Recover the amino acids of this structure.
């Protein structure tokens, strides 16, 4: 990994790049994740891109802007998150088009590399955040994302967003610390509370609880059990006969 690459070997790699299609997905996965676990894989990735090799193993790779940004801020090596940074779209597009394209790219690569179901799911999620998770996310929005997706996933999204917004480090750093210390919240009322109001077991119980939960989230998780019980009674009373 030091010094200039062997010119003859590099030329041969470029000439035979299309033969990488003959390798098993597991072999490509193993070698690429090992490369992405290196202290600084960006120079080699850029060399692969310049010589037509990267397009054969990561067809939807972008430039290394986000990868280099991530390398500068991460505190733990995570090859799959680095892969997501490499595949993150840089072109401007609608949110729907971008989400569709990245989900398709993640699925295609997961099939080619024979990723585990868990890694496939995580890569898709890394490339498809649910909304604008960026430096403008406020505390209320952060809590909503944490409740919906959990701390680890939100930290992933924050790091990937920060990799493209290096000047907003203070804000991202604070949000990541909040995410690290976040503990899952639980809706203070349960199905048993709905049943105690005389609501028959069945779909109505779930629908009423979802309505209460939506209200509770919109209230920034502040209402305690007493208020939630009152809301539960109100929702139950308002349901169609």
């Amino acid at each position: 990994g030091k010094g200039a690459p062997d010119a003859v070997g590099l030329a041969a790699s470029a000439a035979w790049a299309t033969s990488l299609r003959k390798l098993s997905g597991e072999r490509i996965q193993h070698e690429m994740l090992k490369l992405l676990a290196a202290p600084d894989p960006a120079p080699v990735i850029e060399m692969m891109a310049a010589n037509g090799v990267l397009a054969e193993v990561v067809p939807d790779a972008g430039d290394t802007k986000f990868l280099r940004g991530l390398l500068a801020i991460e505190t733990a090596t995570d090859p799959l998150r680095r892969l997501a940074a490499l595949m993150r779209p840089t072109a401007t597009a609608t949110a729907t088009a971008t989400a569709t394209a990245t989900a398709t790219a993640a699925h295609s690569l997961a099939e080619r590399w024979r990723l585990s179901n868990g890694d496939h799911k995580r890569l898709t999620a890394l490339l498809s955040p649910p909304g604008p998770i960026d430096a403008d996310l406020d505390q209320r929005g952060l809590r909503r994302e944490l409740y919906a997706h959990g701390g680890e996933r939100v930290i992933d999204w924050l790091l990937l967003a920060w990799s493209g917004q290096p000047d907003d480090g203070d804000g991202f750093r604070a949000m990541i610390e909040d995410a690290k210390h976040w503990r899952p919240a639980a809706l203070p009322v349960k199905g048993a509370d709905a049943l105690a109001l005389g609501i028959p077991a069945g779909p109505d119980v779930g629908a009423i609880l979802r309505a209460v939960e939506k209200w509770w989230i919109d209230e920034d998780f502040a209402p305690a059990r007493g208020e939630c019980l009152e809301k539960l009674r109100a929702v139950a009373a308002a349901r169609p006969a």
Remarks:
- The chain has a mean pLDDT of 93.
- The two ends are 72 Å apart (CA to CA).
- The chain has 14 helices and no strands.
- The CA atoms of residues 6 and 12 lie 10 Å apart.
